[in-house]
Amino acid sequence: MRRATASDSRATIAARRRPGRRAGHRRRAGHHRRDAMDARRVTMERVRDNDACAKALADAVETASREAIEKRGTFAVALAGGSLAKALGALREETRRVEWDKWRVFWVDERCVKWDDEESNFGGAMRALFGDVSVKRERLYAVDETLCERNEGAAKPCAEAYERDLRALTPDVIELNEDGLPVFDMLLLGFGPDGHICSLFPNHALLRETEGWILPIADSPKPPPERVTFSLPLVNAARAKVFVASGAGKAEMTARILEEALQDGSVPAALVTGDVRWIVDDAAASKMRNS
Question: Which residue stretches belong to region Disordered (predicted)?
Answer without folding.
Answer: 1-35
